[in-house]
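Lecture 7 notes: from sequence to structure.
We start with the chain below.
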Amino acid sequence: MAGSSVENNNGYPVDSGLGCLGKAKPTAGKLTFGELHECLLDSKAEPTPLGTQLQFDDWIPFPLPRVFAFFSNPENLPRIMPAAMGTRLDELHLVSPPASPDSVGSPRAAGIGTLIVTSFRPFRFLPMRVQWVARITEFEWNHHFADLQQRGFFRQWHHRHEFFPEARNGVNGTLVRDLIHYEIGFGPVGRLANTLFVARRMCHAFEQRQQILPPLLS
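Predicted structure tokens for the same chain:
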């Protein structure tokens, strides 16, 4: 499948390399969001014994320590979520990680054991809010961290955030990779909801995040 890249507000090309694990990605590593939708809707591509597995890759034209510091601070989470969801950080029980190897590390980074309580609106036309409780289970400065759902929408949810230094066109940037493993439950009804609604919403959320990240990091 051929893909394309888009440009952010700073004029830098942003990689739209998003794909599903378990389905071949082209060597160039780029998929349009329309192609991602097709991938998500292809039921043969997503089910695994552990549920659904997704991978999202996004290249950002900023150095790795700066990008990692931003992502590892849970207070930035509402800023990168779609505005329509009205995401709030309701509680934060912060456990600091070991000292950062550089001066860029955020003093608000969430180390192993941190509990993050957020809430959001699953349907923008309804006032109801859903609470989400996640725990940080892995953390390595400037490389990765992972969160595990403790309470929330899914039966199971594990999200690993990975960061790699990568220069493109003479710009020192960072490849941000999101590896998501989740299971909705509820048998065939849950699988149908995933195909018709959940996977689409996640695709939309990452699409919006890709567009708003460069201005937030500028």
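Points to note: Residues 1-47 have pLDDT under 50 and may be disordered. The first strand starts at residue 6 and ends at 7.
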